[in-house]
Amino acid sequence: MNQNNLDILIERSLEIRKKYHQLEIQHHNDEWTLEEDALAYLTDAGLVGRNIMSHQKRWMKKDSAAELEHKLAENIWWFIVLADRTGIDIKDSLEKFLTKTEDILK
């Protein structure tokens, strides 16, 4: 994936989050807080764990392959949202992480 594609995916992710904020306002009169977003992410991260267990035949669950694919992508989406809400440039952070880790493993 080239940089432009990542930029587009980030933009689309943030637009989707704006639409969810509108739904939150409709249903609860205000947007979720950063903490609520983090808790939602943690819930989805836990579901990745359960679906991985199902993938390994350690937890029986119907349609876990499709849900695992969905939840892995949703977790990436949450990272983009959480980075944006905390003022972190996710692309820059990922680059720094990869470079640092590559340097450690040389």
Task: Summarize this entry quickly.
This protein has helices at 3-28, 34-55, 64-85, 90-104. With 106 residues, the chain is an all-alpha fold.
Explain the overall architecture:
With 106 residues, the protein is mainly α. The chain has a domain at 33-105. The protein has four helices and no strands. It has helices spanning 3-28, 34-55, 64-85, 90-104. The chain is globular and about 45 Å long. The two termini are 24 Å apart.
Fill in the keyword field for this structure:
4 helices, 106 residues, MazG-like protein, mainly alpha
Elements, N to C (H/E): HHHH
Indicate the low-confidence ranges by residue numbers.
Answer: none
Gyration radius, rounded = 16 Å
By secondary-structure content and strand pairing, the structural class works out as mainly alpha
Protein name: MazG-like protein
